[in-house]
Design brief:
This protein is an all-alpha fold. The chain has one domain. It is built from 4 helices and no strands.
Length: 116
């Protein structure tokens, strides 16, 4: 019984592979077009990229983090006020859930920026 199953599965597998080659599904992704580099491309490669000062990047990240923390504080305050208004044991507002998700996303964003 097992041998006949193996034979059947092997035959189906071989047929599938042959069918795939005939349909072209196992062929390469398509013809690769090689483009010759223009003079413009050479000029772009030869130019030195501008030096980016890491200190300015860190300062920009710090400003973004401060803005995000202020926004996080505002959202958390709004969520607390909304929770205090409603009885969350009986009613769970969709607006509260969305605000909590927004707070979570913002907290992850702040964490990733702070980590570098």
């Amino acid at each position: 019984m097992r041998q006949s199953r193996r034979t059947l599965l092997f035959a189906l597998g071989c047929a599938g592979v042959h069918w795939g080659f005939l349909n072209g599904t196992f062929s390469a992704q398509g013809p690769v077009s090689r483009r010759r580099p223009n003079q413009d491309d050479k000029d772009k490669d030869d130019s030195n990229p501008p030096n980016i000062d890491p200190k300015t990047i860190l300062e920009a990240n710090e400003k973004d983090i401060k803005k995000s923390v202020e926004k996080l504080f505002q959202l958390a305050t709004e969520l607390k006020a909304e929770v205090d208004k409603t009885d969350s044991a009986k009613v769970l507002s969709v607006a509260m859930l969305k605000k909590a998700e927004e707070i979570e996303k913002l907290a992850h964003l702040i964490r990733s920026r702070a980590a570098g």
